[in-house]
Amino acid sequence: MGNYPKSPVMGQMMSEPLLISSIIEHADRYCGANEIVSRRVEGDIHRYTYRDCHKRARQMANALGGLGVKMGDRVATLAWNGYRHLELYYAISGSGAVMHTINPRLHPEQIAYIANHAEDQYLFFDLNFLPLVEAFAAHCKTVKGYVMMCARDRMPAESKIANLLCYEDLIEASSDNYEWPLFDENSASSLCYTSGTTGNPKGALYSHRSTVLHSYASAMPDALNVSARDVVLPVVPMFHVNAWGLPYSVPLTGAKMVFPGPALDGKSLFELFEQEQVTFSAGVPTVWLGLLTHVGQNNLTFSSFKRTVIGGSACPPAMMKAFREQYDVEVVHAWGMTEMSPLGTACTLQAHHLTLPPEKQQAILEKQGHAIFGVDMKIVGDDGKELPWDGKTYGNLLVKGPWIISSYFKNEGGDVLEEGWFPTGDVATIDPDGYMQITDRSKDVIKSGGEWIGSIDLENIAMAHPAVQQAACIGVFHPKWDERPLLVVVKKPGAEVTKEELIRFYDGKIAKWWTPDDVAFVDALPIGATGKVLKNRIREQFKDYKLPAT
User: pLDDT grade, residue 536 (50/70/90)?
Assistant: First the structure.
């Protein structure tokens, strides 16, 4: 917090600290009978209420105290979206410790590095991650014990892990007589590591204040638009930037919550959507690709699903149109980063847009959107000077606000701010109405003859072709132009298309000099731990690629 001057006349309002525990207290007190439904790792469906969740979170908070966990200690989780993970969200942070979610899709060596850097004291994990934990546990220097998130009858007869504890044993042995402590709202609440930086992963350390403010803002109508009338299924994992804040914003509103566990394939998601009458979900484009493929191939329709927020990477316009035109599902394009807790923008129309023709409305909705209150943004040139909001000028995107980091955990990377603004690493335009559109990551921009070509635009056009399932565009060496675009494509099963057809598909849609010089067909694109296409791997794969002579 800055040292700001005080007015000679101060407000006379209660000064209640903004603490995460207040969210689950509210959910219990005012929406206690509302359901939380989970598809468990064990395979069955588990049901209980916010009141049950709050009781077990208090029991777990007592258990943590019994294990010697103190305020500020880091406690790690390696778990899917489920009710036990939700209990830990509140038990750990609410008791004053720091919730540290770890991505189980990382390599064991990366997980060990992150756990050591965070100095985790305990690590909770889902039972299907036992082999993974056994692979790295010996390398974790500070972890005193490991807790398997299951009942006693699912515990292994023997394990390579020393001090292996049972989650349900801890719950059963602990009283629910627990008063959530009051402390400074700027205390650390949770820790997420980002792989979007160079070198080793860096930690974003959130506070109770930043998290509660983010929860309020993200629930607003022109953000995630969460209400008590929704049934919410977070597909985005709870180990990925706290599931975009949904484990906080959903209980804050009292909406019914549905957790998919590890079953994120199209068939499993569709069945859970229908069984629980899900109205709203959120996730990255790669997951929705699987759901749309399953629904399309089986001639299915959604009976309750009305709205999804898509982020993590740019949503192809073809996917947005498929959801809206074929299934009557509204897509809200959103953008943010681990360093932003993560929500920064969401794309919904304003009143004066409602009279525009559909194609102009669609052009707006394809952008990453309007800053939500609490986030300020600007675009600057390489000289640091702010650039105009004309919807055409590209610039480096910078942000600031109360839920955006001021530095990385343990000050890794030194001073990351530029005159108080956080540099996102994205290249974007902002239009006169304040709608931002990412044109590329700064490291992914294709520079041809000194001019920039946005790879996202080229990928979106390719994805609109009926034979294309996935596409990525990278810059490869060109002796005259420095770099030229190469389109890397995965075809839909059973579909056929030639590179000449795809290149012609760009005619009239972009400036001619932006058109890819060549197309390479592959069986699959490399996908990272958070569901994003790994452009760096593709660049490495095609680093010696020879473009056809022009």
Answer: confident
The pLDDT of residue 197 is: 54
Catalytic, out of 134, 144, 168, 194: 194
The tokens describing 405, both together, are 């980091």
> How far apart, in whole angstroms, are the C-alpha atoms of residue 550 and residue 548?
6
Per-residue pLDDT band for 450 (boundaries 50, 70, 90) equals low
Query: Does 14 map to a domain?
Result: no
Which of 339, 366, 459, 483 is catalytic? The answer is 339
Determine whether 348 is an active site residue: no
Same domain, 181 and 50: yes
481 in the same domain as 396? no
513 is catalytic: no
Query: Per-residue pLDDT averaged across 167-185, rounded?
Result: 98
Query: Which of the following is catalytic: 447, 451, 498, 513?
Result: 447
List the domain range (segments joined by +) for residue 461: 444-541
- Domain count for the chain, please give it: 2
The answer for residues whose C-beta is within 8 angstroms of residue 367's C-beta and 6 or more apart is: 333, 347, 431, 435, 436, 437
- pLDDT reading at 103 higher than 70: yes
Task: Give yes or no: residues 371 and 498 share one domain.
Answer: no
Domain match, 224 and 160 both = yes
**Residue 64 Cα distances to 91, 190, 319, 503, angstroms:** 8, 16, 44, 59
Domain C-terminal end among 430, 461, 478? 430
Q: Catalytic annotation on 447?
A: yes
The residues, any chain, with a CB within 8 Å of residue 431's CB and separated by 6 or more, are 367, 389, 390, 391, 437
Question: Is residue 122 domain-shared with residue 267, that is, in the same domain?
Answer: yes
Say whether both 113 and 257 belong to one domain.
yes
* 423 or 454, which is more confident: 423
CA-wise closest residue to 370 among 241, 244, 222, 218? 222
pLDDT at 187: 98
Active site residue: 142, 330, 348, 452, which one? 452
Q: Is residue 3 part of a domain?
A: no
Q: Judge whether 194 counts as a catalytic residue.
A: yes
Q: CATH number of the domain at 41, please.
A: 3.40.50.12780
Q: How confident is the model at residue 531 (pLDDT cuts 50, 70, 90)?
A: confident
Instruction: Indicate whether 88 belongs to any domain.
Output: yes
pTM, two decimals, is 0.88
Shared domain for 506 and 537, answered yes or no, is: yes
